[in-house]
Amino acid sequence: MFNNPFTVGKKSDGYIYGYIFRSSLYNGSIVLDAGEEEFPVSEAELLEGEKYVRKGNLDRMEYFDICGRKARIKDPNHK
Q1: Is residue 44 one of the residues assigned to a domain?
Q2: What is the value of pTM for the model shown?
Q3: Could you point out which of 65, 66, 72, 76 has its C-alpha 20 to 30 Å from the C-alpha of 22?
Q4: What residues are paired with 57 via a beta bridge?
Q5: For residue 79, is it within any domain?
Q6: What is the pLDDT of residues 19-43, one digit of tens each?
Q7: What's the domain range around 24?
């Protein structure tokens, strides 16, 4: 059984979880929306079925293919 720890804004296990969107705060850049925070990203791990798959160059991908997708990024403050 798939154990999906996805919770928006969750900062544990070394990752920050959220959704991929374009941000009006960052001049239309692609961001991970983690609830109260947005993180500009060029790559992230997108949830595909039961696993996270690393995707790079998000700004070059078709926006409608990634918009609203569940994703995670490494938490830069995690030790």
Answers
A1: yes
A2: 0.83
A3: 76
A4: none
A5: no
A6: 999 998 888 899 999 988 899 999 9
A7: 11-74
